[in-house]
Design a protein that fits this description.
Ribosomal Protein S5, domain 2, 4 helices, 35% helix, 134 residues
Length: 134
C-alpha cells in the first residue's frame, strides 16, 4: 500500500514554508506546534483563513508544515499559501480552488516580490549621495 503525500511550498519575502498533506484525522502542525497554539495570535488568524475555507475537507487530512526565514507575518503568509496549495492538490476539488481565489489570490500564489539590487554611486537601490554646488 502506497501512502499518498502531497508536498507543497509557499514563499513570502525571505520566509519559506514547506507543507506535507496526507490522510489523517485533522491535525495541523506548524514546526511541530499545533496550529491552535501558534503564536502570535494575529499570525494564527492569518493561517486559520486557509483552514476555515476548507473546513469540509479538514477532518480527513493531516498537515505538517515547516517554516523558516523572515519575520512572523512573512512566515504566516508563507504557511497559509503552502497549506492552501496542499489542500487543493490533495483533494483535487475545483470548487475549493475557486473559493480560495475568490477570497484572496495570495492563498494559492506565492509572493514574487524581492529586494531591488543596490546601484553604484548610491547607498541603496534608489538613494544617492547628495550633491552640493555652493
Amino acid at each position: 500500500m502506497v501512502k499518498k503525500v502531497v508536498n507543497t511550498s509557499g514563499k513570502r519575502k525571505t520566509a519559506v514554508a514547506r507543507a506535507a498533506v496526507q490522510k489523517g484525522t485533522g491535525l495541523v502542525r506548524i514546526n511541530k506546534i499545533p496550529v491552535e497554539l501558534y503564536e502570535p495570535e494575529i499570525a494564527r488568524w492569518k493561517v486559520m483563513e486557509a483552514l476555515k475555507i476548507a473546513e469540509s475537507h479538514l477532518d480527513k487530512i493531516n498537515i505538517d508544515v515547516t517554516v523558516n526565514g523572515g519575520g512572523f507575518m512573512g512566515q504566516a503568509s508563507a504557511v497559509r499559501t503552502a497549506i492552501a496549495k496542499g489542500i487543493v492538490e490533495f483533494t483535487g476539488d475545483p470548487n475549493l480552488k475557486i473559493a480560495y481565489l475568490d477570497h484572496d489570490r495570495s492563498l494559492l500564489v506565492s509572493d514574487s516580490r524581492r529586494k531591488e539590487p543596490k546601484k553604484q554611486l548610491g547607498r541603496g537601490a534608489r538613494k544617492k549621495r547628495q550633491k552640493s554646488y555652493r
